[in-house]
Amino acid sequence: MHLYRIPVDAKFTAGKVKAFYTIQTKDPDLFAITANHFKWSPDGNWVSFLAIPTASLAADSNLLYVITSKGEKFHVAGRMLGYDDWMKWASSANQLAFISGEGRFLVENKKTTILTIPLFMQKKEYTPNGYVDLDLEWYSPAKGIVARAKENKEWKEGTIPTMLTTLFAVDIKQKNKTNHFSGEG
Known about the structure:
The chain has 185 residues and is mostly beta strands. It has one helix and 14 strands; from the N terminus they run ββββαββββββββββ.
């Protein structure tokens, strides 16, 4: 799969479109046919995006990638569903928050994960066992807000049960430290 750099003033001029990076999709773990939801880090040095396989496979999992603005470094951040609002850069730091997990149903396996760049080994999950996160937002540089519900592993088919969520503040400086959201900074 090829990524291209297209200047704002390209106006359908093919000569202005330049090849940027080629993702080697021959590896079964990197299979994708298109990319979407490009988002820049606050310093403009990184861009995150989803690599999307076929429509059927994308309903269960997409790969979240990060790449430097010059294409020198390329990393798989994790797997997630194709919800644009489920991946957000912090406003003042190169920290990418996303809801990771596979499976098209929201009843299980959806975890808030924060990736600190370029320290890729500092990827942490903040969702306790037995819960799923269904939305996220940055509240401050050190806190995130998540909408959390109890997992429902008993559900197998039929109408998807209503997931009753509660807002939680996530302290990103401490692994797994969450509190009910009080609105205080």
